[in-house]
């Protein structure tokens, strides 16, 4: 019998066995993973470690399987909740395959399981297995992740006197603070129908390929999303960059002043604009 | 043996999203909630968003304790100070009665497996844990509690029993213990030991909290799934714990297939009654268990 493994070697070995996408049995039987490009991660396991696991009553593979199954199902369950429409479009099995492949490339390095989906947008853009049949899926994934980020965004100090400050100042020269939960999103496909459909039974149809702007934000503790027409999208984008309304409107022609006034009024009422930015020092310009 | 003190808060529940609205109304005998620390740290360093806002409002009416799953105190990686900074900030904001996590490792080589993985009970592990727990306690400026985890494997090269190991760690690192009696039961079946021996061997003065939960069966093994009511065998272990350790803050965990709030309250009420019955026994009757 070889000497007992030190704690680090034991942990590296267990990580390998538990996370190997081929499952415990195949991982134990093959010291060199067939997935050549992942060799750096799935290093050669020290098969002799197995002899250090107690096998009274139940065998080692069955015992290790509890961890291996738990590893994948726990993350899968969390991502199913974070990406419900992506799952619905792909179906349960194809979604599970996507996540299994995703975890090979992006194993979690996060302390919270809520963060694990943060690179799925980036991953799916290159994942030809689904983008061939569902070219709009990267937009859906991006939308759903933005929803999560909005949910967890910081709660800022809400300026209760904002309306008074606006009416006392020159509204067109004000720089607004935008609520940290606000996400602006431009998609290649119009996702409005996909995200408006509440019924889980209804099949998701292929959306129209039209560039569309969306705002996702938190209001009254709920995550809200709305489609934005082009000028509203552009103005809000510039407001988020710290520009005044006058500066924002420089290259936008033919916008009705009443429309602008109503737009800002609504954004203030909905907490999208939640305060004023400090005046910029001329030296900073 | 040092005497340490964690106040008895009575019986509490785990705070879960599904019950936010029920919790907002007052509950006659639930005085405190345990919350999962990571759920209130936000994502991408964003802060806690809506969950933190809810927690701040719950904190106004209830005592709260923070319970983590990612400290990974047994990992051979460096301690994660990014995580510890977030935990310290959350602790400063929420002012929990205490902070707890698990006596396990959750990842290695910067990867997180999001599971509570077991450690061999060796001298090497003991020394590794003692140093790290002390560093964490120094950083947080407070004593923490560590929970015994359920496990499906044990190691032939372990040099002591799980209960001896738990006692050695808590004494060596001067930390508290969060005793999960469901995990003791699950392990007693999976690894064939007597759970009463386990309980009777623990350092009484280190136990600051007790967990109750349900489990499920997977073949010959019991798995700690937290998806059902507490079973009779675990209620019996709570009874013995109450006899041995007196009244200790106790909470019911239910994390999957979560029932309505009333059913959770009913489980908590059962715990209240058992603790009351056992700790109100005449002193002579309790002495035989001490």
Structural write-up:
The complex is a heterodimer of chains A (285) and B (290). Chain A has helices spanning 7-19, 24-29, 60-82, 84-90, 92-105, 120-125, 128-131, 137-152, 162-168, 192-196, 230-240, 245-248, 257-269; strands at 176-178, 183-187, 212-219, 222-228, 273-276. Chain A is built from 13 helices and 5 strands. In chain A, a hairpin with a 2-residue loop joins strand 3 (212-219) and strand 4. The longest helix of chain A is centred in the first third of the chain and has 23 residues, at 60-82. The mean pLDDT of chain A is 86. Chain A folds into 2 domains: 7-134, no CATH class; 156-284, Outer Surface Protein A, domain 3 (Alpha-Beta Complex), CATH 3.90.930. Chain A has a 3-stranded antiparallel sheet. The radius of gyration of chain A is 25 Å and the shape is elongated. In chain A, helix 4 (84-90) packs across helix 5 and helix 4 (84-90) packs antiparallel against helix 8 (137-152). Chain A is mostly helical. Chain B has 290 residues and is of the alpha/beta class. Chain B has a single domain (11-289), classed as Alpha-Beta Barrel (TIM Barrel). Chain B contains 10 helices and 12 strands. In chain B, the strands form 3 sheets. Chain B has an 8-stranded parallel β-barrel with strand order 1-2-3-4-7-8-9-12. In chain B, helix 7 (195-201) runs parallel beside helix 8 (232-245). Chain B is globular. The two termini of chain B are 16 Å apart. In chain B, 49% of the residues are buried. The mean pLDDT of chain B is 91. At the A-B interface, helix 1, helix 3 and helix 8 of A face helix 2, helix 3, strand 5, strand 6 and helix 4 of B.
Architecture (CATH level 2) name of the largest domain in chain A: Alpha-Beta Complex
Strand ordering within the main sheet of chain B: 1-2-3-4-7-8-9-12
The figure for the number of domains of chain A is 2
- Biggest sheet of chain A, strands in spatial order? 2-3-4
Of all protein chain pairs, which has the greatest interface, and how many residues does each chain bring to it?
Answer: A-B, 51 and 53 residues
Could you tell me the number of beta strands of chain A? 5
Total separate domains of chain B: 1
- Proportion of β residues of chain B? 15-25%
Q: Supply the CATH architecture of chain B.
A: Alpha-Beta Barrel
* CATH class identity of the largest domain in chain A: Alpha Beta
CATH class of chain B: Alpha Beta
Globally, the shape of chain A reads elongated
How many E strands of chain B?
12
Uncertain runs of chain B with pLDDT below 50, 5 residues or more? none
CATH topology of the largest domain in chain A: Outer Surface Protein A, domain 3
- How is the biggest beta sheet of chain B arranged? 8 strands, parallel, barrel
Contiguous runs where pLDDT drops below 50 for at least 5 residues of chain A = none
- Profile the largest sheet of chain A: 3 strands, antiparallel
**Terminal Cα span of chain B:** 16 Å
Helix amount of chain A, in percent? 40-55%
Element-level helix/strand string of chain B? EHEHEHEEEHEHEHHEEEHEHH
């Amino acid at each position: 019998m070889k000497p007992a493994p030190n704690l680090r070697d034991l942990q590296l070995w267990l990580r390998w066995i538990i996370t190997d996408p081929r499952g415990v049995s195949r991982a134990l039987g093959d010291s060199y993973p067939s997935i050549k490009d992942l060799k750096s991660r799935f290093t050669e396991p020290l098969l002799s470690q197995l002899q250090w696991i107690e096998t009274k009553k139940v065998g080692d593979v069955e015992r290790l399987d509890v961890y291996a199954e738990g590893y994948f199902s726990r993350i899968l369950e969390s991502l199913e909740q974070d990406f419900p429409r992506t799952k619905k479009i792909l179906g349960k099995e194809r979604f599970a395959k996507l996540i299994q492949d995703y975890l090979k490339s992006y194993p979690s390095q996060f302390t919270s399981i809520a963060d694990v989906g943060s690179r799925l947008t980036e991953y799916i853009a290159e994942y030809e297995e689904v983008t061939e049949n569902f070219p709009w899926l990267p937009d859906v994934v991006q939308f759903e992740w933005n929803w999560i980020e909005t949910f967890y965004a910081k709660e800022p100090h809400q300026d209760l006197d904002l309306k008074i400050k606006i009416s006392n100042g020159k509204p067109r020269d004000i720089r607004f603070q935008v609520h940290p939960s606000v996400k602006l999103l431009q998609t290649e496909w119009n996702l409005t129908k996909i995200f408006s459909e509440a019924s889980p039974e209804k099949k998701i149809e292929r959306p129209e390929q039209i560039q569309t702007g969306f705002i996702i934000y938190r209001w009254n503790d709920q995550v809200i999303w709305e489609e934005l027409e082009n000028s509203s999208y552009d103005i809000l984008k510039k407001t988020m960059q710290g520009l005044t309304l006058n500066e924002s409107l420089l290259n936008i022609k033919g916008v009705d002043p009443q429309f602008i006034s109503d737009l800002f009024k609504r954004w203030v009422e909905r907490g999208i604009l939640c305060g004023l930015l400090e005046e910029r020092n001329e030296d900073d310009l | 043996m040092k005497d340490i003190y964690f106040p008895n808060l009575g019986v509490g529940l785990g705070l879960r999203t599904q019950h936010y609205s029920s919790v907002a109304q007052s509950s006659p005998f639930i005085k405190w909630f345990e919350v999962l620390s990571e759920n209130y740290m936000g994502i991408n360093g964003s802060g806690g968003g809506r969950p933190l806002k809810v927690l701040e409002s719950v904190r106004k009416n209830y005592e709260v304790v923070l319970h983590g799953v990612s400290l990974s105190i047994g990992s051979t990686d460096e301690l994660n100070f990014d995580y510890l900074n977030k935990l310290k900030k959350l602790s400063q904001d929420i002012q929990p009665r205490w902070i707890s996590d698990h006596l396990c490792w959750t990842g290695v080589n910067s990867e997180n497996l999001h599971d509570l993985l077991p450690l061999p009970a060796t001298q090497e592990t003991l020394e590794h844990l003692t140093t790290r727990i002390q560093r964490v306690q120094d950083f947080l400026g407070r004593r923490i509690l560590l929970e015994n985890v359920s496990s499906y494997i044990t190691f032939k090269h372990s040099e002591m029993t799980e209960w001896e190991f738990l006692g050695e760690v808590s004494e060596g690192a001067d930390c508290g213990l969060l005793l999960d009696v469901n995990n003791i039961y699950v392990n007693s079946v999976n690894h064939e030991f007597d759970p009463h021996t386990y309980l009777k061997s623990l350092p009484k003065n280190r136990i600051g909290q007790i967990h109750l939960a349900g489990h499920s069966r997977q073949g010959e093994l019991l798995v700690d799934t937290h998806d059902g009511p507490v079973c009779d065998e675990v209620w019996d272990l709570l009874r013995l714990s109450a006899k041995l350790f007196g009244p200790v803050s106790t909470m019911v965990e239910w994390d999957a297939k979560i029932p309505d709030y009333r059913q959770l309250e009913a489980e908590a009420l059962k715990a209240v009654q058992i603790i009351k019955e056992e700790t109100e026994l005449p002193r002579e009757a309790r002495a035989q268990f001490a």
